Amino acid sequence: MDNLPLIIIAVIVVLLVVAAIGIYNGLVQRRLRIDEAFAQIEVQLKRRHDLIPNLVNAVKGYMGFEQKVLTDVTNARAAAVAAGAQGPAQQAAAENALTSTLRSLFAVVENYPELKANQNVLELQEQLTTTENQISFSRQHYNATVLDYNTAIQVFPNVLLAGPLGFTRREFFDAEPEAANVPTVDLSIS
Amino acid sequence: MAATTFFAQASANRRNSFLLAAFVVAVLCLLGFFVGYAIAGDPAGGVAATGAALLLGSVIAVGTYFQGDKLVLAASGARPVDAQAAPQLMNVVQEMAIAANVPMPAVYVIDDSAPNAFATGRDPKHASVAITTGLLEKLDREELQGVIGHELSHVRNFDIRFALIVGVMVGAIAILADFFLRFTFWGGGRRGRDRDGGGGAQLIIFFIAIALAILAPIIARFIQLAVSRQREYLADASAVELTRNPYGLERALAKISADTEVLEVANRGTQHMYFTNPIKKFEERSSNLFSTHPAIVDRINRLRELTGEAPLSAPEAATLAGLE
After folding, report:
1. What pTM did the predictor assign?
2. Are A69 and A108 in contact (CB under 8 A)?
């Protein structure tokens, strides 16, 4: 009977250790999900970066095509590639800038009937549209996993372990401030 | 959180599917028992027939679970496509698969000028989406995205599994009921009455069996239809959540509704799977207890609620419904 307090303490310690292991594993799993989601975005960003030079080459030969628009796109692409190493928030900002220069490029293409009929340009336009859409849908998924993780490391009792074990907050891959919710306007007559 | 509500929706759907499937199985057992009892004249016959009905039902259900999607695709004349043949379609499916967080499904095309689409399979890992060539020709990118979003919502919500399994169960009940009614007609009833000692109780069992044989297929079909209609609304709403663009789906519904082509490969066995009801009579398209789909006008109005627009006016609605 002398051992009873000792046994109780031992049981409590074991329970605490088991709980801590459970919390730790849960946090690791959530962090892995973020990395997985981000890898998906990166694949698509890479694809977009690869497609852009083809598009620039396809349109630059056309007489009188606005050279400034092309330079903007090329510069924005270079900035986006460079931002790849600077974390999700920086990268998102650079990619958003690239998206808007691409939009002006496609707006200019609309003024050139021979470009609009060019099969190669049409294909590139479709590829870039789908890549942009895939980036935005992957971003949604990525941000959801980040929110889930950031919440998990801040709630009690996880917060007691998260700091000492090196679980730090992750950055969101931010959507464009206002463009994300603006419905696209269809001016074509159907 | 969007992801959590989607997840909750899918799991609620799986639970409901299970309950409904269980209910349909119960109806099948009940029918089997009374049919067996009435034919054999004692409860042991009822138990035997229940066992036989269950066995038959499970064999068909298991077969359908693993092979039903191939059967449906083959029956609809669907052929697989790849990124070479239909780049935009494959891109849009890929986008929606990412948005719905499901694996890329197999994509098929049906050579038919009527614009329509369906999804089938047993779970998101084994899913197929089929689109008619008419749909590809007549819809623009945004509209196509709305339709594919709708179909992939069915995939993510496990509606495809429900459609496969319950469709088969309803069929099995109909076959069993039909068999019994024919059997009675060809003289099974006379034998039951000739027997001594059965008396009133025997007769009552017999009448219960006949009543069940008539009612069970109708009840089972009602359940299937009610759930089917509800899920069309749910899939429309989920499609908007995925695409974040209600206008594409709304325009697609309006275009398809205004289209007068009839989908030749659809029949009563597969009509509940399609994007819009492929059998085009006004009665079939209006929302009532017997339709697989809600009226397109109702679906459009629910989408307009999401965007805060006024519902379609009566003349607009009448034009869409094909009444002029």
Report:
1. 0.78
2. yes
CB of B17 within 8 A of CB of B161?
yes
DSSP string covering B45-93 = HHHHHHHHHHHHHHHHHHHHHHHHHHHHHHHTTEEE--TTT-HHHHHHH
pLDDT band at residue A16 using 50, 70 and 90 as cut-offs: very high
Q: What is the pLDDT of residues B221-259, one digit of tens each?
A: 787 777 787 788 888 888 988 888 888 999 998 888 877
Furthest CA-CA distance within chain A: 97
Tokens of A147: 């929110």
Peptide bond before residue A157 is cis, with ω within 30 degrees of 0? yes
Interface of A with B in 30-69 (CB under 8 A): 40
Q: Is the dihedral of CA B285, B287, B292, B293 positive or negative?
A: positive
d(CA B238, CA B259): 24
The predicted complex's ipTM stands at 0.72
Distances (CA, A) of A16 to A11, B196, B267: 9, 75, 62
Cα dist. B272→A80, B162, B173, B322 in Å? 47, 11, 18, 20
Query: Which residues of B are less than 8 Å from A130 in CB distance?
Result: 88, 91-92, 94-95
Contact yes or no for B94 and A134 at CB 8 A: yes
Given an 8 Å threshold on Cβ–Cβ distance, is B87 in contact with A137?
A: no
Say if residues B213 and B177 touch (Cβ distance below 8 Å): yes
Asked if B104 contacts B217 with a C-beta cutoff of 8 angstroms, the reply is: no
Q: Are B156 and B163 in contact (CB under 8 A)?
A: no
Tokens 């495809």 found at: B160
* DSSP track, B172-236: HHHHHHHHHHHHIIIIIHHHHHHSSS-HHHHHHHHHHHHHHHHHHHHHHHHHHHHHHHHHHHHHH
Contacts of B298 (CB under 8 A, 6+ apart): B287
State whether residue B137 sits within 8 Å of chain A by CB: no
Does B91 contact A183 at a Cβ distance shorter than 8 Å?
no
How far, in whole angstroms, is CA B177 from its chain's centroid? 21
Residue B91: list chain A partners with CB under 8 A: 126-127, 129-130
- Residue pLDDT, tens place only, B122-178: 899 999 999 999 999 999 999 999 999 999 999 998 888 888 877 777 777 887 788
**What's B243-272 look like in SS3?**
HCCHHHHHHHHHHHHHCCCCCCCCCCCCHH
- Asked if B160 contacts B154 with a C-beta cutoff of 8 angstroms, the reply is yes
